[in-house]
Amino acid sequence: MSLNELTIHEARAKLAKKEVSALELTQSCFERIEKVDSKLNAFISLNKKEALKEAGKIDEQIAKGKALGVFAGIPMALKDVFCTKGIETTACSNILKGFVPPYDATTVSKLKEQGTILLGKLNTDEFTCGASTETSCFGPTKCPWDTDRVAGGSSGGSAAAVSADEAFFTLGTDTGGSIRQPAALCGCSGLKVTYGRVSRFGVISMASSWDTIGPLAKDVEDLALIMNVIAGPDQRDATTPQVKVSDYTKSLKADVKGLKIGVPKEYFGEGVEKETAKIVRDAIKEFEKAGAIVKEVSLPYTKYGVAVYYVVMPSEVSSNMARYDNIRYGSSKVEAEDLIDHYFKARAKGFGPEMKRRIMIGAYALSAGYYDAYYLKAQKVRTLIINDFNQAFSEVDVLMAPTSPFPAFKLGEKANDPLAMYLADALTIPASAAGIPALSVPCGFSKDKLPIGLQIIAPQFREDLLMQVGFAYQNLSDWHKQKPDLD
Length: 487
Known about the structure:
Distance between the termini: 14 Å
Number of strands: 13
Helix content: 25-40%
Strand order of the largest sheet: 1-3-2-6-8-7-12-13-11-9-10
Number of domains: 1
Number of helices: 15
Structural class: alpha/beta
Radius of gyration: 21 Å
CATH class: Alpha Beta
Shape: globular
CATH superfamily: Amidase signature (AS) domain
């Protein structure tokens, strides 16, 4: 096994025993990136010089017996919406090219304090708007299992980098499924946290009442280690509540006897491929064999999730994108007759087609005469979706369903059909609407040898329960250990 194929907990054990060095781990990742990333396009920039320098410093400190952070010497990468001091951050949009933040996002600071080594920045849909990474100004990221297919989105670069062993872990953002869906399509583990569980300070916003920050890693044990570092309140983010952070590693138990699992019938209906549904149901049966109690439940407002999302989310996108005028951020190289002409030309040139579509839809939904008919009504239905989950969790401990209705689809297959693309998030949006946590773990492969994801959903702030259940499943199966062949 190459060093870059290790999990975080395996690498930490080897570092503690001085069987490997931080420099060796980091070099192994860069060698892998050099070998395979031309096939994937997961990374948009590398931080090689600084990363190797930092790894060398950590090895010196280890040699001197100094106490170091829990992630000292572990290489990671970041979706390019996390502000990184001194490193260009573009949200994969032409309008932000040239923007170099003067500070780190809170999550980045926390990870740096624990000794992580930043390999580089990862591809994403433009301003995270997409489900395939095809709206990125750097071109699409490709699925490690079949490079003719998408890696999912918007955290496609993050999922592909983990799946291909280019990084030990990555951070992504999940607004309507943007961690879980690419994790499912690429065959890694990805966590969408409770809204507010992880600080959003320093992370470029898409839709502020939906955005969450979370990790993608090779297994659930690694997710728990990451969450121990990044979760918790932040005085710079008013949406992070004073809710105690568990030691998530203490939740890692293989026993699920007596666990009550709800299987929402709406998540196995129209639009979900039969093969995907069968593979997920087979995974749920493994829990039943281990002593869990499985029952069917109903979430009737699930069918309105996509409609609610694509009214509320573009409204918030439209508001958030107003700040990008090509004066305060990014390059100002626009020839214009006056200030208004500058705005028109800069935004027309800087934003891609999907961004323009969402900005216009959002502006329309918020305009006088349409606010009550669209935005307000969508928010009311969002409340009904929340009530659905509250009712379900009064009967069961967790819910289980497919993460995506289908495996990774062909590049370009849905690019010119926005409605078809939006349906790729049909099974992840409801949990996002409710602000509750959800986990995607690999649970099998399609006949085309493409990964399928099992989605596990829990009540607010029960990430500990998700860790327990996900860890238990990874003790019952070895799907998460499968590797794509990129050689």
